[in-house]
From TrEMBL:
A single cellular component GO annotation: cytosol
Molecular function as annotated in GO: ATP binding; glutaminase activity; NAD+ synthase (glutamine-hydrolyzing) activity
Keyword Ligase attributed: yes
Family, as annotated: In the C-terminal section; belongs to the NAD synthetase family.
UniProt-listed InterPro entries: C-N_Hydrolase (IPR003010), C-N_Hydrolase_sf (IPR036526), Gln-dep_NAD_synthase (IPR014445), NAD/GMP_synthase (IPR022310), NAD_synthase (IPR003694), Rossmann-like_a/b/a_fold (IPR014729)
Subunit note: Homohexamer.
EC number(s) per entry: 6.3.5.1
Keyword entries, A-Z: ATP-binding, Ligase, NAD, Nucleotide-binding
Pfam families: CN_hydrolase, NAD_synthase
Residues of the CN hydrolase domain: 5-275
Record-given protein name: Glutamine-dependent NAD(+) synthetase
Keyword Lipid biosynthesis: no
């Protein structure tokens, strides 16, 4: 009958400039797609070189090596009899474009440049690429000689074109074009194109995956069609983590979807779909205006004549996936018994759970990686707790200001996870540092509780925090050596995004690590994550951690009890800080605009003058401490109000912290609000009389 088509999309763990590895993974995905019976394979954006090449895109070597990889793909027997759609940069008329290269049986069918570039958030595509600005226009591109020798073609179509096969028509979108209000799939659908493809490098943010699914479903809900979404997965050399989730939809329903955080380097998602379902859907709901001036006809069919008995994929249930974090050689974490460090610990434990599951499912690559890390070629992980003991070292760094409660909470959580747990007392090191200072100056600083000044109090807290960082790196480098084992450990940090926003941490303290898994996550989301871990992993030790007030435990105890708390030190709760953070970054609010919004949303809790005090306090803390973001430990991007100044939140780090003009505007509004309240109260009082 020639109406059912089998299509494949994929998620690949590509790495910037790893041309050898990237080629291997592309070929593997094509091989799997053919095994599934697919006649079209879609890959992620810029998959040949990797999306995160950054300024390496300027280098001619990058373009050269991409064409060399393309040549290898064209020559490979694996790419025969299947339409292959791969991503790479292409220079046309001395202008660099982010392109899809679509080929079949050693012939390039179309080079499709990206038309709508991503230039927001973490994306800087305009820095390296130009958008193709001629809709529905196709011109000739002269191929490099190395490609001409393989294809026998001198020129190929380049531009905003589509592919027509004997049985259907396909059109391309590239990543951000799906998110744009003028997405190409709208016009393509009205022109009768039945299959839309989207090659993406869409990085993970909390709650973003659901938005992505809704966009894919929406693309075919209005006018029908089949939509394929490909994505990168893993970290390709930067602070972003790509979460996969390749999917296929038809007429507004998801019929196949890949895992969000799979440990597989190559994951192929395929579906067999009936083209008549698209045509019936459109016949009832819309009447496309057929335009064929930019189509490219090929002597190839995606369907077979005898496909009556071929089953088609049906809409499935929504899937839920667990966040994972991958390291390279084992980890060390200072575990304080608080929410933040416990969250980092739970991420490592969840990784161990996923590793054991992947090995049980027969993932040989994951098994090889684990055996390499533990230096045991016969090792086969089966129990997450046992694996955690091999990979994960936790240490509680106690001082005279530490409570028994936090020590016990850290010990109980480590025991439930199975980590190699150490108890370290830092008092000797602290006294040694202060002894050096006293010997030079003749002074011995005191805490505020013992009559010291604010400067002394802060300095004594910072000494403890920084000594913990030094000890963490010492133990990470040498604790395996002390046990007669090879290698060292990666130091993990545990400062959340809200603390980075206000600068509520000591520069070069225990938050300074090799990587900070939770640096892009808010305190409120971390608490939700720990609640999930209690249920999912039966880590009941987390219950007492969630109930305890957040504290740095850097000031003296009173009768053995904690006096210092984080929220008291910051002058606001983490919940309030989360709201403020979103207003600053997402809503683009300065001090005055933020105040104007909060006096309404917080009117049941705070008076205008109290709101003003909180807003001013936040901006003072933020501007005084912004310099800390220039040295903060790298963390993966997760929250859309992150203050990471690497490239997501580009702002000065030296401010006039008085904010005189802005704060005066706030004060004027407070005065007006107070006058209006007094006037309103007076009128009500008079009316009662």
């Amino acid at each position: 009958m020639g109406r059912k088509v089998t299509l494949a999309t994929c998620s690949l763990n590509q790495w910037a400039l790893d041309f050898e590895g990237n080629l291997t993974r592309i070929l593997k995905s094509i091989e799997i797609a053919k095994q599934k019976g697919a006649k079209y394979r879609l890959g992620p954006e810029l998959e040949i070189c990797g999306y995160g090449c950054a300024d390496h895109f300027y280098e001619s070597d990058t373009l050269l090596h991409c064409f060399q990889v393309l040549k290898s793909l064209l020559e490979s027997p694996l790419t025969q009899d299947i339409i292959c759609d791969v991503g790479m940069p292409v220079m046309h008329h001395n202008v660099r474009y982010n392109c899809r290269v679509i080929f079949l049986n050693k012939k390039i069918l179309l080079i499709r440049p990206k038309m709508l570039l991503a230039n927001y958030g973490n994306n800087r595509e305009f820095r390296w690429f130009s958008p193709w600005s001629r809709p529905r226009h196709v011109e000739e591109y002269f191929l490099p000689r190395m490609i001409q020798d393989v294809t026998g073609q001198t020129t190929v179509p380049f531009g905003d074109g589509v592919l027509s096969t004997k049985d259907t028509c396909l059109g391309s979108e590239i990543c951000a074009e799906l998110w744009n209000p003028r997405s190409p799939h709208v016009d393509m659908g009205l022109d009768g194109i039945e299959i839309f493809t989207n090659s993406s490098a869409s990085y993970h943010e909390l709650r973003k995956a659901d938005h992505r699914v809704n966009l894919v479903k929406s693309a075919t809900t209005k006018s029908g069609g089949i939509y394929l979404f490909a994505n990168q997965k893993g970290c390709d050399g930067d602070r972003l983590y790509y979460d996969g989730c390749a999917m296929i939809a038809i007429n507004g329903d998801i019929v196949a979807r890949g895992a969000q955080f799979s440990l597989k380097d190559v994951e192929v998602v395929s579906a067999t779909l009936d083209l008549e379902d698209v045509r019936s859907y459109r016949g009832e709901r819309c009447h496309p205006h057929m335009v064929s001036n930019f189509k490219r006809h090929q002597n190839f069919s995606l369907s077979d004549c005898d496909d009556r008995c071929l089953p088609t994929h049906q809409p499935g249930k929504k899937l839920t996936y667990l966040y994972t974090f991958k390291g390279k050689a084992g980890f060390l974490l200072p575990l304080s018994g608080g929410v933040d460090s416990s969250s980092t610990a739970c991420i490592v434990y969840s990784m161990c759970v996923q590793i054991c599951r992947a090995v049980k499912d027969g993932n040989s690559q994951v098994l090889e990686d684990v055996q390499r890390v533990v230096s045991d070629s016969s090792y086969r992980p089966e129990d997450p707790r046992e694996l955690c003991g091999r990979l994960f070292t936790t240490c509680y760094m106690a001082s005279e200001n530490s409570s028994v409660d936090t020590r016990n909470r850290a010990k109980d959580l480590a025991a439930q996870m199975g980590s190699n747990h150490l108890n370290i007392n830092i008092d000797m090191a602290v006294k040694g540092m202060l002894g050096i200072f006293s010997m030079v100056t003749g002074k011995w600083p005191q805490f505020r509780a013992n009559g010291g000044s604010a400067r002394e109090n802060l300095a004594l807290q910072n000494v403890q925090a920084r000594i913990r960082m030094i000890l963490a790196y010492l133990f990470a480098q040498l604790c395996l050596w002390a046990q007669g084992k090879p290698g060292g450990l990666l130091v993990l940090g545990s400062a959340n995004v809200d603390e980075s926003l206000t600068g509520y941490f000591t520069k070069y303290d225990c938050s300074s690590a090799d990587i900070n898994p939770i640096g892009g996550v808010s305190k409120m989301d971390l608490k939700c994550f720990l609640q999930y871990c209690v249920k999912r992993f039966q880590l009941t030790a987390l219950i007492s951690i969630l109930d305890a007030p957040p504290t740095a435990e850097l000031e003296p105890l009173t009768d053995g009890k904690i006096v210092q708390t984080d929220e008291a030190d910051m002058g606001m709760t983490y919940s309030e800080l989360s709201v403020i953070g979103r207003l600053r970054k997402i809503s683009k609010c300065g001090p005055y605009s933020m105040f104007c919004k909060l006096i309404h949303s917080w009117k049941e809790t705070f008076s205008p003058s109290q709101v003003a005090t909180k807003v001013k306090h936040f901006f003072r803390m933020y501007s005084i401490n912004r310099h800390k973001m220039t040295t903060v430990t790298p963390s993966y991007h997760a929250e859309n109000y992150s203050p990471d100044d690497n490239r997501f939140d580009l702002r000065p780090f030296l401010y006039n912290t008085q904010w005189a003009w802005q704060f005066r505007c706030i004060d004027n509004e407070v005065s007006r609000s107070t006058e209006q309240s007094i006037d309103s109260w007076s009128k009500r009082f008079i009316s009662v009389l």
